[in-house]
Structures are given as C-alpha cells and as structure tokens.
Amino acid sequence: MSEPQNPIAVVASEAPLRTKPSNYPEPFASRMAGREKRPLGNLFGLSNFGVNQVRLAPGAVSALRHSHSTQDEFIYVLLGAPTLVTNAGETLLCPGMCAGFKAEAMTLTA
Asked: Are the C-beta atoms of 61 and 31 separated by less than 8 Å?
C-alpha cells in the first residue's frame, strides 16, 4: 500500500510558511509586511475552499478589503484584538470571535 500524498493531520503552527510574495502590486504589497501566512488547506490538497493560519505583528494588515466571487470566507480569532473593516465600519474582534462572508457574484458593466 502506498503512502498518502497529503498528511492526515498537522500542528497548524508548525506548518510551512507561505513563501510566495503577496499577490498585491505595490504600493499595496508592502502593507502586508508583518504578516505570516500558513496555507493549511494546500497541505491537504483542498480545492473548494482555502484555510490559512495568519499571524500578524502589532499594526500589521492581513489583507486589503476584498471579496470573492466563488469562495465564502471565514475568520476565527485565536489571539489578539484585530480590527475588521467592512462596509458596516470597523469591528474590534477578540479571541473566540468569528466573522463570515458569503461569496459575492461580481457584475461587470460596460
């Protein structure tokens, strides 16, 4: 019997850090300084949704405001007090809090 390609389980904090630079172009990419991202879903070959563990230095930004057209997004805070910025304004999060965002179909107009 052959060994599985992907691990069965991992300790999230010990998973490899993302080595690929941010997809954001400058001047936005430099705003991601202080962010450590571990793409956990990739380890298991997940393709329908992503799972990332993100650790932020004080004052760092995890992402610019965005939405996805095909993937829902979910945030769960383990430690710290990040500020979530949405159309409704700013929300201070704390450990144990979570937020979710349904994928939004994008409409293109000419």
From this structure: yes
